[in-house]
Write a structure and sequence with these properties.
single chain; about 110 residues; mainly alpha
Length: about 110
């Protein structure tokens, strides 16, 4: 990494992490909302809502990474590390929230 200032790396990672985490939290909320059935007897509608929410989630994940990549020339920091931070931000918060929710439901 010759010639790259450490602050460019740190700010790139933090930028990507913040953007990715925000999208990840929205994705988690979207899936959580889709799994709460309006009518528990209407399994078909619940399944359709869940599949729709999953499709939106995957689309948002891809769009997040594409936007971070396309705007790479505008950043005053490392765009490569912004992509890495974005990927980590998309993955980690959802995993942590799922684990916390899973453990809290286990005791119920």
């Amino acid at each position: 990494m010759h010639g790259v200032d450490i602050s460019h790396i740190v700010f790139g990672l933090l930028f990507g992490l913040v953007i990715g985490s925000a999208v990840s939290l929205f994705n988690f909320w979207l899936i959580h909302r889709a799994t709460k059935p309006e009518d528990p007897a209407d399994v078909q509608r619940s399944t359709t809502r869940l599949y729709g929410a999953l499709a939106v989630r995957y689309l948002l994940d891809v769009l997040t990474m594409v936007v971070i990549f396309l705007l790479r020339n505008l950043y005053p920091f490392s765009a490569e590390f912004a992509l890495v931070g974005g990927a980590v931000g998309l993955i980690v918060p959802g995993m942590v929230l799922s684990l916390v929710k899973g453990f809290s439901n286990k005791g119920a």
